[in-house]
Amino acid sequence: MHSFETAKDALAQARTRMEKSVEDLRKEVATLRTGRANVSLLDHVRVDYHGTPMPINQLGTLAVPEPTLIIVTPWDRAVVPAIEKAVRSADLGLNPASDGRVIRIPIPPLTEERRKDMVKHLHKILENHRTAIRNVRREIKEGIEHLEKDKKISEDEKTRSLDELEKVTHQETKKLEDLSAAKEKEVLEFK
User: Fold this and answer.
1) Residue pLDDT tens, the chain, 191 long
2) Any domain includes 1
3) Number of structural domains the chain divides into
4) Residue partners of 131: CB distance under 8 A and separation at least 6
5) CATH number for the domain including 162?
6) To the nearest 10°, the Cα dihedral for 88, 90, 93, 95?
7) Are 97 and 104 in contact (CB under 8 A)?
């Protein structure tokens, strides 16, 4: 279960795994709609292209010419209807329109109720990532205690390592909370 030989390895593994959790939250938060156009809103949209689901950004150029508009310029005009359909059915509340060459996706302003729902969703995502960090801390702590029990490290080293593990845990949890707070502010901001 524990794939480390020293307390130093354990702490490095803890830091790496916690940073992955922070990065995952950063990606997830980027896809939340705020009423401001952002091409990352379309990251999860898959377009059926010749029977293969493809990410929208692999089928054309995405641009944000103004704060409430995303423009998709497909490299193959034949895929325009498929992109429109995929965006409509992606449950993002977006209504794309095209002229046969370019797809314009206006970003409507969010209602107060929708903003509150998004904040609730954001808190749920944050809590899942906090839990992931706590689970990493618990596993690494057990591993460090195991190293001491197996006489691979001294009791002093175990104590120092557990203190360092707490510091890393607090740092990474703070990063999660800062990301969440910034996104919440952005979601609740009225335009």
Assistant:
1) 566 788 899 999 999 999 999 999 988 887 776 767 788 888 888 998 888 899 988 899 999 998 888 999 999 888 999 999 998 888 777 889 999 889 999 888 778 887 888 888 889 999 999 999 999 999 999 999 999 898 888 899 999 999 999 999 999 999 999 999 998 888 887 54
2) no
3) 2
4) none
5) 1.10.132.20
6) -20
7) yes
> What is the C-alpha to C-alpha distance for residues 91 and 18, in angstroms, rounded to an integer?
30
- How is residue 181 written in tokens? 């707070």
Domain stops at, among 87, 106, 125:
106
- Burial class of residue 151 (count of CB atoms within 10 Å of its CB; 0-12, 13-18, 19+): exposed
Nearest residue to 98 via CA among 112, 109, 108, 83 = 83
State phi, psi for 72 to the nearest 5 degrees.
-115, 125
DSSP percent split of the chain into helix, strand, coil, nearest 5: 60, 15, 25
Give the structural domain span for 167: 7-31+111-188
Which pair of structure tokens corresponds to residue 111? Answer: 């209602």
Tell me the two tokens of residue 14. 């803890």
